[in-house]
Amino acid sequence: MLGRGAIGARRLPRLLDELALAKADGTYAKTLHKLARAQLLIIDDFGLGHPTDAQRHDLLEIFEDRYGARATVVTSQLPRENWREWIGDETLTDAILDRLVHNAYAFDLKGPSRRKNKD
Fold first, then answer.
1. Residue 117 within a domain
2. pTM
């Protein structure tokens, strides 16, 4: 998955699927450890779909392990003011966002998709 000092980039839906599989095959702790050790973790497509309770717990574990230790970049087309509603559970939302946005820099990008310009 990730080597020491690596940069990890994952779309959130795939990352959550990987963690579910890791729980099933007994490698969950090892997978979380690898995510925690990456110098930079980029999580793309934050806010797609609706997270299950288990997935909310997975997000908390990821952000808890990385908080204050490693850089994490989160990209989303969902406006930040809608993240609370998307995450769902009030208690887990507070815990996740506390770890994610404390000491964070937020950038709002505007303009057309860069993918449209690749033709």
1. no
2. 0.84
Q: Count CB atoms within 10 A of the CB of residue 55.
A: 21
The residue behind tokens 């946005």 is: 101
Joined together, the tokens standing for residue 44 give 């793309």
In a domain, 58, yes or no: yes
Residue 50 lies in a domain: yes
The whole-angstrom separation of Cα 23 and Cα 93 is: 22
Edge to edge, what strands does the sheet with 40-44 contain? 7-11, 40-44, 71-74
Question: pLDDT tens, 60-85?
Answer: 999 999 999 999 999 998 888 888 89
The encoded tokens of residue 106 equal 């937020």
Domain with 50 in it: 7-105
Partners of 71 in the beta sheet?
40
CA dihedral 68, 15, 8, 107 (to 10 degrees): -60
**How far is the C-alpha of 13 from the C-alpha of 43, rounded, in Å?**
10
| Structural domain total, the chain | 1
Dihedral sign for Cα 60, 56, 72, 77, please. negative
